[in-house]
Design a protein that fits this description.
The complex is a heterodimer. By secondary structure, chain A is mainly β. Chain A has no helices and eleven strands. In chain A, strand 7 and strand 8 form a beta hairpin. The termini of chain A are far apart. In chain B, 37% of the residues are buried. Classes of the chains: A mainly beta, B mainly beta. The interface between A and B is medium-sized, with 22 and 22 residues.
């Protein structure tokens, strides 16, 4: 069975550029989560969707970050303009909703120069 | 006070020993609890989840939950070098769908 699929696996870009991260959740899962992981702050929830609707975006650091889920099988996290402090590993996870376990993708390692 | 607290370690145990990883949480309304294992450079991998007070066993792993003390632990029996990783405790607060993660405990199992 395919797990959560994220792309790209690695992204290196210059400050000020737009960055788009992509995620395909596990088929049948109706909740999708975007996390950011850094050494200093650990694993932080940025935003999550339930049935394609954003439920909680309180973790989104600022207006430069935006996320969409146009359908049940695809979500994007966009950073515009990007800054060096956005460098981190970004994970997408999905689950069946409620208290069910979340399953993580392999992550996107983002470096902003 | 952090919502989910773990000792960052490293916790070092000899091969074959029992490793005990601990986690405390602040939200008394929390209803579900998860342990993830994360190898360096990899994504978090679900190890165990527990919803009710008491113990839950799966192979060499046992999760223990004490809601009155707001404490959840993970025991790894017969520890192997391949168990060396960072273990993340995650808590689902209240009726939300989101998880709050601790900073993780690094476990080193020495041959």
């Amino acid at each position: 069975d395919a797990g959560v699929i994220q792309s790209p696996r690695h992204e290196v870009t210059e400050m000020g550029q737009e960055v788009t991260l992509r995620c395909k959740p596990i088929s049948g899962h109706n909740s999708l989560f975007w996390y950011r992981q850094t050494m200093m702050r650990g694993l932080e929830l940025l935003i999550y969707f339930n049935n394609n609707v954003p439920i909680d975006d309180s973790g989104m650091p600022e207006d430069r970050f935006s996320a969409k889920m146009p359908n049940a099988s695809f979500s994007t996290l966009k950073i515009q303009p990007s800054e060096p402090r956005d460098s981190a590993v970004y994970f997408c996870a999905s689950n069946l909703g409620g208290h069910q376990p979340q399953h993580f993708g392999d992550g996107t390692r983002l470096s902003i120069l | 006070q952090k919502e989910v607290e773990q000792n960052s370690g490293p916790l070092s145990v000899p091969e074959g020993a029992i490793a005990s990883l601990n986690c405390t949480y602040s939200d008394r309304g929390s209803q579900s609890f998860f342990w993830y294992r994360q190898y360096s450079g990899k994504s978090p991998e679900l190890i165990m989840f527990i919803y009710s007070n008491g113990d839950k066993e799966d192979g060499r792993f046992t999760a223990q939950l004490n809601k009155a003390s707001q404490y959840v632990s993970l025991l790894i029996r017969d520890s192997q070098p391949s168990d060396s990783a960072t273990y993340l405790c995650a808590v689902n607060p209240g009726n939300t769908g989101k998880l709050i993660f601790g900073q993780g405990t690094t476990l080193q199992v020495k041959p």
